[in-house]
From TrEMBL:
Protein name: Pyridoxamine 5'-phosphate oxidase
Domain Pyridoxamine 5'-phosphate oxidase N-terminal: 25-150
Pfam families found in the cross-reference section: PNPOx_N
One cellular-component annotation, GO: cytosol
Keywords: Oxidoreductase
Domain of life according to the entry: Bacteria
Tagged with keyword Oxidoreductase: yes
Gene3D superfamilies: Electron Transport, Fmn-binding Protein, Chain A
PANTHER family assigned to the protein according to its UniProt record, in alphabetical order: HEME OXYGENASE HI_0854-RELATED, PYRIDOXAMINE 5'-PHOSPHATE OXIDASE-RELATED FMN-BINDING
Molecular function via GO: coenzyme F420 binding; oxidoreductase activity, acting on the CH-CH group of donors
Length: 171
């Protein structure tokens, strides 16, 4: 059973003495606001694959797209477990968010229409998608599969004063 409100813990081994655990709402705010994410999948031979992508947070899950023949789609077909990361490249400010979960295909067309609207609202007209046949279709009529990652576990790495590592457990 997956909970919607996670167990929240501060890892004192990697946190300053004055640090407190970040609330999950702060993690969600950062996931919603980020423009770019990094997705890690696993190749059939066990080697990792990492790629930048755009996405939207909706209904308790991170959503992203991929073409059916892209490396990440082929990886997900044989192993749906992923890690999705966003944050800053600064050491002394901001917060990095790491989400662990399983990528599940989204094919319900009402849900896809809502997600297509969310993509366009977040990224602009160049990211308009039509919905049909259980997928997104972009410019040039290219098909994009849509996936949702509902967190099993997530981490927040607060940087600066104070440094802190929060773990959110959903399982």
């Amino acid at each position: 059973m997956t909970r919607t409100t996670p167990l929240t813990e501060l890892d004192h081994r990697y946190s300053d003495p004055g640090a407190t655990p970040a609330p999950w709402e702060e993690g969600v705010r950062l996931l919603e606001a980020a423009e770019l994410y990094w997705l890690s999948t696993v190749r059939e031979d066990g080697r990792p694959h990492v790629t930048p992508l755009i996405g939207v947070w909706r209904a308790g899950a991170m959503h992203f797209t991929t073409g059916p023949q892209e490396r990440k789609a082929r990886n997900l077909a044989q192993n749906p477990q992923v890690v999705l990361v966003t944050g800053t490249n600064a050491l002394s400010q901001g917060c990095d968010i790491v989400v662990e979960g399983e990528a599940v295909a989204v094919t319900d067309e009402d849900t896809l229409r809502s997600l297509a609207e969310a993509y366009e609202a977040k990224y602009g007209k160049n990211w308009h998608f039509d919905v049909r046949d259980g997928a997104f279709y972009g410019q040039g009529d290219d098909r994009a599969e849509v996936y949702a990652v509902t967190p099993w576990k997530a981490f927040g790495f607060g940087k600066g004063e104070p440094f802190g590592q929060t773990r959110w457990s959903f399982a």
